[in-house]
Write a structure and sequence with these properties.
The structure is a single chain. By secondary structure, the chain is α+β, with helices and mostly antiparallel strands. Among the domains are: 120 residues, no CATH class; 113 residues, no CATH class. The protein is built from 6 helices and 28 strands. The strands form 8 sheets. The protein has a 5-stranded mixed β-sheet with strand order 9-10-14-15-21, with no helix packed on it.
Length: 497
């Protein structure tokens, strides 16, 4: 599928700012934000991080703009954009994913041709070759494991009717106004960042959650009083490995021509070189390996180990339609991260990020998008029902903030109903698509004698729904950690946070 917008050409002098690094030249009014800078032959392609536009440059000389404003983006707001380079161009892959669905669109950028877009659905990019982009099953190998831990008691909380519970004793929602002293800004900052009590209740086996939330199991050190109970429950790995089923991998060309290969197991990487195709596959899901006692403390613990393998297929005569890995010799796939601790991995990640920033740096603040036709997404306005569904998904989460929670206490082994930390919750919807906002205001126990208010955009600038499935979690985290505006910023008793 081709985007309807071809390359846009402008005067190089009007497009690149400060190409010679001479002082005194004007800064761009609308600078391109480089996602990356990828060499393709003698030129470099520099796509924007968020907008459907890329610059083609040669050295410091601007050549042309590439734009794709009508490419079919995923159905919800894009969370991630990746680059896959091949000798003839660059694939830009837009990904949107939440708990319910995933969706991807790929755009192929060539120095000499108009951009071309293809819809990938939920398929995950797993490699490239000179002809196209390879996609495969979006699931990780960990999907193929069988849980062995836990008991039926784990579901107890979900079966409780809160209306049948007694109310727990709690302190007043707000302190007595006459006895309360308003904190100054320094006190607020200190309260919001003080972690001195964060570990003081580490042994308190009290759990608070709504009736639909998960429960918690508490581990006991080996040799403790609860060892026998642990052994009775089976103090072993929490899951076992299962064989992965046959899956499809597909090569997608810029012209949306597709070549499908059926493989007998999950494949998560493909490469083709000199007529040989290498597949990295997982015969089964990951297994759990016990960590030597004492390495992480006085208890048993387990590492998750993936046993990926590689098989090489001769494709000089063409890509086969079926590959049975068990019919070919295979060997364990190299894992560069195997055995590395967190500090070592952070060094690797830091080096990769430094390399990316070095590629981006020459083009930051130098490419001006002012007046570039097609540099913004062109999204058709959705019907009112679609808009309302997206608004309702945010509004319904916030409307329940004042509902009570359920608390279980190890001291009494009882479950009680607990008053919410929110009250007087009001949820309003303001502005029209794509600027629609859901505005929630409320009173909270942590901020006495003020009303708090927060605005949530429902759609991004391109008009696609923003994933807000954790909106209440983020709200509570910000309040609990003090990452909100100073109460001095309140206007008429309302503090925007």
């Amino acid at each position: 599928m081709k985007a309807r917008s071809g390359p846009q050409v402008r005067d190089p002098a009007a497009s690149v700012v400060d190409v010679t690094d001479e002082p005194g030249l004007p800064a761009p009014l609308d600078p391109l934000d480089p996602l990356d800078a990828v060499a393709v032959g003698a030129v470099t392609i520099v796509p924007d991080t968020n907008r459907p536009v890329a610059a083609v440059v040669r050295g410091d000389e601007f050549r042309r703009w590439l734009t794709w404003p009508t490419a079919p983006l995923p159905v919800v707001t894009v969370e991630r954009t990746d680059i896959w380079a091949i000798p003839s161009g660059v694939w830009v892959v837009y990904e949107a994913e939440n708990l319910e669905q995933s969706s991807r669109t790929a755009v192929f950028l060539s120095p000499e041709q108009p951009p071309r877009s293809v819809e990938l659905g939920d398929r995950r990019p797993i490699g490239v070759d000179a002809e196209g982009l390879w996609v495969g099953d979006p699931r990780d190998a960990s999907f193929w494991t069988s849980g062995t831990g836990g008991t039926d008691e784990d579901d107890d909380m979900s079966r409780i009717d809160p209306e049948t519970l007694e109310w727990a004793e709690v302190a007043p929602f707000w302190p007595d106004r006459d006895a309360w002293t308003e904190p100054d800004d320094e006190d607020e900052d200190r309260a919001g960042t003080d972690d001195s009590d964060s570990d003081s209740d580490s042994d308190d086996q009290t759990m608070v959650g709504t009736a639909s939330q998960w429960t918690i199991r508490f581990a006991h050190p080996l040799g403790g009083d609860d060892d026998q109970d642990d052994d009775a429950d089976g103090d072993g790995p929490v899951s076992t490995s299962l064989p992965t089923p046959p899956t499809e991998i597909v090569r997608v060309t810029p012209a949306d021509e597709r070549t499908t290969v059926q493989v007998d197991h999950l494949v998560d990487a493909v490469s083709i070189e000199d007529g040989r195709m290498t597949l990295r596959f997982h015969p089964a899901g990951p297994r759990q390996v016990e960590v030597p006692f004492g390495e992480r403390g006085p208890w048993r613990s387990w590492d998750t180990v993936y046993d990926a393998r590689e098989v090489v297929i001769d494709v000089a005569a063409g890509i086969p339609s079926v590959v049975v890995t068990e019919d070919h010799a295979s060997e364990p796939a190299a894992d560069e991260d195997a055995g590395a601790d967190l500090e070592e991995l952070e060094v690797v990640w830091s080096a990769e990020d430094a390399a990316l920033q070095a590629r981006r740096a020459p083009w930051i603040g130098r490419l001006d998008l002012t007046g570039v036709s097609g540099a913004s997404w062109q999204t058709p306005e959705p019907d009112p029902e679609t808009v309302e569904r997206s608004v309702a998904a945010v509004r319904e989460q916030l409307a329940g903030l004042s509902e009570p929670s359920i608390m279980w206490s190890a001291d009494t082994d009882t479950v009680t109903r607990v008053r919410s930390d929110y009250r007087s919750v009001q949820v309003d919807v303001e502005r029209s698509w794509p600027d629609t906002e859901v505005v929630v205001s409320f009173e909270h126990t942590a901020v006495p004698f003020l009303r708090l208010r927060r605005r949530h955009r429902v759609f991004d600038d391109a008009g696609y729904p923003i994933d807000r499935q954790y909106v209440t979690v983020h709200l509570e985290e910000d309040i609990a950690t003090g990452h909100i505006a100073s109460r001095r910023a309140a206007v008429d008793g309302v503090l925007d946070i």
